[in-house]
Structures are given as C-alpha cells and as structure tokens.
Amino acid sequence: MTSSPHMSDYRSSILGYPRIGPRRELKRALDSYWHGGITQDELVATGRELQEQTWSELAATGLSQVPGNTFSYYDHVLDTAFLFGMVPSRFAALKEQLNPLDLYFTMARGLPDKPPLELVKFISSNYYYRQPEIEPGMEFSVDATNILDEIDRGNASGIELRPVVMGPVTLLLMSKAATDAPEGFAPLDMLEPLLRAYVDLCEQLVKAGTTCVQLDEPYFTLERTDEELELFRRAYEVLGTAGLRPRLLVTGQYGDLGPALDILAASKVEAIGLDLIAGRRTPEELAAVPGLRRKRVYAGVVSGRNVWKTDKPATLAYLRELQAVIPDIVVSTSCTLLHVPVDVLSEFDLPDAVADRVVFAKQKVGEVVALARALKDGEPEKWSQGGELAPIHPDEDVRARVAAVKPEDHDRLPWAERKDAQQAALPLPIVPTTTLGSFPQSNKVKQARYELGQDRLSYDEYVEIIKAEIADAIALQEDIGLDVLVHGEIERNDMIQYFAELLEGFAVTRNGWVQVYGSRCVRPPILYGDVSRPRPMTLDWIGYAQSLTDKPVKAVLTGPVTMLAFSFVREDQPLKETVNQIALAVRDETIDLENAGITILQVDEPAIRTLLPRRPEGREEYLEWAVGAFKLATAGVKPETQIHTHIGLSGVSAVVEAIEHLDADVTYIVSATRSLYWVLDALEGAGLTRGVGPGVYESRSARIPDIDEIDELLTRAVRAIEPERLWANPDGGLKTRHHWQLEPSLRNLVAAARRIRRRAVAAEASQPAS
Residues 224-264: pLDDT tens digits? Predict the structure, then answer.
C-alpha cells in the first residue's frame, strides 16, 4: 500500500507536520477541555479529525510517504515517554485514579502537590518540551495503542503511515535523572532496557502492517562525547539486527550528524534522513562516507524552519549531483514542519514583495513534491528564470548607522563603579521582589484588540481600556507588596509580535500560528528588510504606569538577539548586520525611557543561545556578535540606570559566562523549581559580581507554590548569592496564568522574600562588632 499510487515513482516525504490545525482548532479544544467546557470524548474527536484531515491532505499532494504519529495533545517528547511507560514514581499513584489522557496532562501541567515535568527548550528551536524523568530500575513497557489506532485508521483510508518516534538515545539525552536518583546515575544508564522496549515496539508495528518507522535522533547533530557515540552505535546495532522489525529511517534534524552519520552508514538501518539546510554537505562529501551509497537517503533540501521559498532550480541541480553518487534518494524537508505556520494562503495583507517570496507548511509540501517530480521527469520551463532577488525594503540610513558603530558604543562604566550610583538612585531592600513583565489579559482587553483591528473601536477608546487594566495591575502589585513593579504588558499581543508591528522591516501575519508547547501558540513575524524604529514603542504605556505609583516601574523590552531568533529571518545578509539594526532600535527606546524617568530597563534575551552553532566551529564568532548586540542595545543609558535581562537555561558554565559577559546589572534565569538546584550549584563559588534572580517557581504551570517551598529555594540561593545581590521572582512572564493563580503565588513569593530579609538582618546583627 502507498499513500498516493499515482505518484509512487516520485520519491518524496516530509519529517513531520503542524498539529494545531489551520485555525488553532487543537488549542481551542485543549483550553476548553482544561476548563471544563468540553468532554474528553469531544477533545479526542477534535484530535482524530485533525489527524485524518492532515493525512488526507498530505496524500492528495502526491507525497509518496506520509508521516504518522506526528499529532500530539501536548508535546511529542512527552508522548514518547508515555509510549514507553516513563511515568516517574511521584505520579505513579495517579495511574489508579486518572485515565491515561488525564495522567498525561497532569505530568505536563502539574497539581497543587505535584510539580509538572520541567519545560525545556527543544535544542536550537523555539519549541519547548516536557522533560522526561528517568529513575534507576525504571521498568519500560510499550503501550502503542495510539500509534496502532492511527495505522488502522490510515489503512482504512488507503493511506499507509510511517510512524515517527523519538530515537532511543536522543530520548535519554533529552531526559533528566529524577531528583532522588543516586549520585552518578544518568538516564543513559538505562539504554539497554529501553532498547528492549523499542524492539518490542518494532515487532508490534510490523504485525500491524507497518513497513517503515522513523526514529528521530536530533541530539546527534550536537557535539557528542565518544561514550555517547558508542551508545548510539550500540542502539542501532540492537535495532538493526532485531528479528522482526520494519525498515528503519533514522533522521538527524536541525544540523549535521557529524560522526553519527558514519555510524548509521555502517549499521543495518535502511534509510537516513539528512538536514541539508542547516547541515549542508556537498554530494562528494556525502559519497565519501563509507556505506552511505547503499542507503536510502532522505535529502532534506526544503527548510522546515524558515518561510522563504526554496530556490528550486539550484536545489534541483544539487539533488541531481547527489543522485549521481547516491542513487536512492527521497526528496524531503530538513526537519519537521512543526516550526512553520500551516498555510500562507490564509494571509491576505502581507506586503506584496514578502507575499511573493514566502511559503508555509502546506506550500513546502508542494515544493517537496515538485522537486521530486522534476528530479525524475525534468525541470519545468517556468523554473528557468532563477537569479538573485533584490533586497526587500533597503534603507541606506540604517545601513550607514550600523557601519558607524564604534567599539565604545558597546561599553558602560564597569559594574563596580555603577553599582553605587544605582544603589543611591534605587533604595531597594535586600532580595527585592518583582515579576518578569507580563500579566494575564482579560477577555475585555483581547476583545478590544480584536475590535481595534477590525476598525470597530477607535484608538482613543482602546487606549482607555488598556489604561484601566494597567491601573488594575499596578494596584494589585502594590497590594501584594512587590518592590519593583511592571505595567503588565497589557497592550502586547506577544513579546515579539508587538515590537515587530512597530518596527520597519518586519511583517506580521494574521494566521501564521506556530505551536510553542501545549496550547501555547505564537505568530513569529517575518524579518524581511532593514530595521528601524519610527517612533517610541513603549513610552506612553510605561510612563502612564509609573505615574500611578511611587515604586519603580520596570520597562520590559525584547532584546535584539531574541527578536532575531523568534522571527523568520531574511537570508540575504549576515545575521550580525541584521541583529545590529535591531539593537540600535532597542537602544533608541532605552534612551527615551530613561529620559522619561524610568530607572530600571529589562531587556530580555531568553533566546540568546538558540542561534548558537551546534558544533564548536563558529561559536566564538556568534557569541561575540550576539553579546555585542545586547551591549549595543543597552549601553546608551547612564550608570545609575539599572539594566536587567532574562536568559534561558543552558549548560552550567554557559549560565555563568552569560551573566558576566552580557554585563547586565541583574540577570533573571529561567530555572523551573526542579532545576534550580543545579543552577545554584553553578553560581556558587563562580565569582559572580552582578545581581541574579533565579526563578523560584515555574510561571507556565498552573500550580501555586507555597511559602515554605519558595523560602527553601531562596534560602538555598543565599548560599550561592549573597542577599544583597539576590532577587526573588518567578522564572518567566505570567501572561498565561489566571489571576486566581497569579495572586497567591506572588503573595507567597513576597512573604518568603521577607523571611530571608529578616534572617539576613538578624544574622548581621549577631556578628561581633569589628
């Protein structure tokens, strides 16, 4: 059986597809189910409808292979953990109380007495996953009910699905050891029993009629140790020699497989998927890999991560050269299409020059099929024009300003010198309390934003609605007792899109939604031209908030590297030049805010490591221009103005290096409760000099932390960071929370911080006089 018999000679496939639906149908169903609006049967019906609609549409395009098991109610990594019975013991008792889907959601979202699995960035993408927890002796068992049900339904429609499952070694590398695991235990210690479960899964798939299974191993496009590569070799020796299994397609998405490609080429796996966008190799280089000529190669030549049209003539020429040395190739995407919106035809007001050059997931599938057809039948005449495309929206003034940037434009006074000026300007208590910016937005605000866009509400009416909500946010924070307030970002639809709408050089979409995790979706803007700031972007809102209180109101801006990383970025000039254009626009905003009396400026860079090259080559150069862009954006203000930033988790050393090199006065760290300890371990004794705010509760979870829990974490933090440099804050914005969750959490945060202050004062008073 094949997904499209009339096209079976054109070997084409994709590695995954968006699952939220063309109009975010899954998001709406999830939110409704979680709040009691629909039943589980209705939620499942929506999911099945979206699955079957996707399969039918993909088969109709002429794809010769349609991927299955790419749908998820929350996160495909959590799906894989659930598939193999990776339920941590702290959730085990719920197996008897909850049905499987509700247990799954509990692991993702938590309960009052059970923190959820951690939310962690998925390698170098803008997607987040719930991190599986592995325990010594964990028993793996296969429950393939959902996959087998998909296979049956696909077969009933005449569509053979190729199930997609996270590969075993990547799954363990993406996991963490349970908190109570013995010292020295690592998830990779459990590879052998997990491989037995994978062999069992393969046997079940064959018996269900599956001819091929896709195993994704993206962690091997990162630099890996010799020990990890040896475990990778072992995994595919076991799976490749299993007695009853389908053909194995092993993919290396998001980069080059490096030495892992040699291992796969020498193994018994039948097919290998290569990212030939991020991990481009010449046909000659690929042909030189021993054994690769004998494999089926899924050539990932259509980008799964950006929206610009594929240069089909140039790509076809590459594919022909590749086929000359590796005969058995399948035209494919570089990675799953999860990271791009569904359909560009739903966009009706993009700038003409942009609309003519971008494609979304549905159109990318068409590009894959067209390239596969041309590879067999020859290039269509209409492709022959090719050629260089002129830049969109060039601005010579912007380019001249970037060219005129001097090294001293990146520097402020040394922190030791500006610290005293800031303490005089900002008489804050030790362990100040604050949030990281966003607050929940009422339905009234969301409706007002919609009506403004539909020209059914005047701008003046809109302003009054926003101001009323800002006033409520300020009053609530004062009542709670926070020390540094925020205006709540009430006017913002998204931390990226809001600024993109106000900057020249960006285009925003109406329906270009991309899933971030669970039901959380964003619309990444399209960065197509030279960037400039026509007018102040936040001054009116933050100035109004500051007029309502004597406490400092912190301005929150999105940093230049994060704007770059969370957008679909132009490819016609170096990223360094593009990011410096954004940095200068942010710099102008910080100066205007300072001139208006705002004394704390938070410039967020949670994605500063997202663009970091996946292998050592190029990392030093990247960090130089990425850190340089942040410093260019923030170095225009006076020494007494305090610069804060917000960064994401990475390696232990990277946290320390980032805090020092960015030269911010205070750095907040995304560190959900269960990871905070290793962050604090990294900071302890690291010689840090600046302020640090390790997030003491997870902002994306509905769970409300109690006072003792936050107190314990802050007490532990004081061992790593003296109270004078410690800040107390959640680990992210609070936009996705409800007020009934937000208010008690923040009250507990303030109460815990006050305990720390009292202890610090008492400890100082007990010291003998010098």
Answer: 999 999 999 999 999 999 999 999 999 999 999 999 999 99
Helices 226-240 and 191-207 pack at an angle, to 10 degrees, of: 30
Tell me which of 359-368, 445-454, 610-619 is least confident: 610-619
CA distance 681 to 704: 25
Q: Which residue has the tokens 């750095």?
A: 667
Q: What percent of the chain has pLDDT over 90?
A: 75
- Please state, in angstroms and rounded to a whole number, the distance separating the CA atoms of residues 394 and 572: 11
**Which residue type is seen at 69?**
N
Prediction pTM value: 0.91
Beta strands per DSSP E along 240-337: 247-252, 271-275, 296-302, 329-333
Q: Report which listed range, 37-51, 178-192, 620-634, 725-739, is most confident.
A: 37-51
Closest CA to 644 of 420, 434, 406: 434
Check residue 4 and give its pLDDT: 40
Distances (CA, A) of 19 to 59, 84, 571: 16, 22, 27
Beta strands in 111-265 (DSSP E): 119-121, 128-130, 133-134, 161-166, 176-177, 212-216, 247-252
The predicted-structure confidence for 620-652, as pLDDT tens digits, reads as follows: 888 899 999 999 999 999 999 999 998 875 444
Element (H, E) at 646: strand 642-647
Residue with tokens 């972007």: 537
Tell me how far apart the alpha carbons of residues 484 and 499 are, in angstroms, rounded to a whole number.
Answer: 23
Closest by Cα among 35, 198, 16, 52 to 741: 35
In which band, very low, low, confident or very high, does the pLDDT at 3 lie, cut at 50, 70 and 90?
very low
Dihedral angle, C-alpha 271, 272, 276, 281, nearest 10 °: -100
Show the tokens assigned to 240.
């490749």
Per mean pLDDT, which range of 206-220, 324-338, 714-728 is the poorest?
A: 714-728
Q: What is the DSSP secondary-structure string of 676-693? A: HHHHHHHHTTS---SEEE
Phi and psi, residue 125, nearest 5°:
-105, 180
583-608: string of b/e by CB count within 10 Å (b at 16+)?
A: bbbbbbbbbbbbeeebbbbbbbbbbb
Distance (Å, rounded) from C-alpha 711 to C-alpha 676?
A: 13
292 contacts 261 by C-beta, under 8 angstroms = yes
Identity of the residue numbered 473:
A
The answer to whether 410 and 636 are in contact (CB under 8 A) is no
Q: For the beta carbon of residue 108, count every other beta carbon within 10 angstroms.
A: 19
Average pLDDT, the chain: 91
